[in-house]
Design goal:
Length: 311
């Protein structure tokens, strides 16, 4: 789906026209993948719009940058304000928000430290990431996720997504919606752009951060909601075959939201429909983002989108 453009993009403290947000091909990031970024959703609620877990996303951006010795010249509060500014200036909700920091035009060579840090925030309309409502048919990828002593997966870095691209392309070429990567020890890790949950015997399982996963903000939200619903939660290393004998499985992520898995490697998950625990978590999640229940965790940052034009 081509990107639907908006009017403004925030760049280093200023709103600039969408079409002026260009970089030079000799920028460090183009050659060496030196970027960290976020993906955030802004949802509409009856008569209003709000960004989901803005501060947590921007804190993760700051942490991703810190891992890569990329000191961002903006505080958390300034970055949060930048996101609100661009969403309000563009007047588009619901939308997807893409903050990114990268090493720009400076010097050539692997060492990024003498290339300037550029920060941008764009937003644009974006609908469902996983097609359909009947669940995703996924495969276990032949590609592993990043080994922990190679690329840090707690940094949401652009370069990590070369691995994600291999997983995703392989899955789609073979007729699946998405691929699940194992870590380099063969344990379940995550999808190319989603965290993974499994339900077995009434307990909710997910891989811990040590299994090469991104510390997903939706993952964290699901863990909070599960505990609140009284669902037992276990974070532990999970063998691949749990996917074949579980009762339910689902992905969580800003893009994928909560998407149940219908099958893995052509083996049905349960009876292929969304199971009761997934359903309860799906409902709890969407009730909050859609403003149907009280925002008891303060996850929503209201934005005033004048044209409240839902897309
Ligand atoms: C590799 C990967 N894992 C997990 C996630 C889910 O993270 P979040 O819920 O913060 O969007 C994402 C999406 O950002 C991702 O790219």
């Amino acid at each position: 789906m081509p990107i639907e453009t908006t009017k403004n993009i925030w760049h280093n403290g200023q709103l600039i026209p969408w079409e002026k947000a260009n970089i030079h091909m000799m920028s460090h990031v183009v050659h060496y993948g030196s970027s960290v970024f976020e993906g955030i959703r802004c949802y509409t609620q009856p008569g209003s719009a709000a960004i989901f877990r803005l501060a947590e996303h921007m804190q993760r951006l700051i942490h991703s940058a810190k891992i890569y010795r990329m000191p961002l010249p903006y505080s958390l509060e300034q970055l949060n304000a930048a996101v609100v500014d661009v969403v309000e200036a563009n007047g588009v909700a619901p939308c997807y928000i893409r903050p990114i920091a990268f090493r720009g035009y400076g010097e050539m060579g692997v060492n990024p430290l003498r290339s300037p840090i550029e920060v941008y925030v764009a937003n644009f309309p974006w609908g469902k990431y996983m097609p359909g409502n009947n669940g995703a048919d996924v495969c276990v990828s032949s590609w592993n996720r990043l080994a922990p002593n190679t690329m840090p997966t707690l940094a949401k870095a652009g370069a990590n997504y070369m691995n994600s691209q291999l997983i995703r392309m392989e899955a789609e070429v073979n007729g699946f919606t998405e691929g699940i990567g194992l870590d380099t020890n063969g344990y379940l890790s995550e999808g190319s752009g989603e965290n993974l949950f499994i339900v077995r015997g009434g307990t909710l399982y997910t891989s811990p951060l040590a299994n090469s996963v991104l510390n997903g903000i939706t993952r964290d939200s699901i863990l909070v909601l599960a505990r609140q619903l009284g669902i037992p939660v276990v974070e532990q290393a999970l063998p691949r075959e749990m996917l074949y004998i579980c009762d339910e499985a689902f992905f969580s992520g800003t893009a994928a939201e909560v998407t149940h898995l219908r099958s893995v490697d052509r083996i049905l998950v349960g009876d292929g429909t969304m199971g009761p625990i997934t359903k309860a978590l799906h409902e709890a999640f969407f009730n909050i983002v859609n403003g149907l229940v009280e925002d008891r965790y303060n996850w929503l940052t209201p934005v005033s989108v004048r044209e409240a034009a839902t897309v």
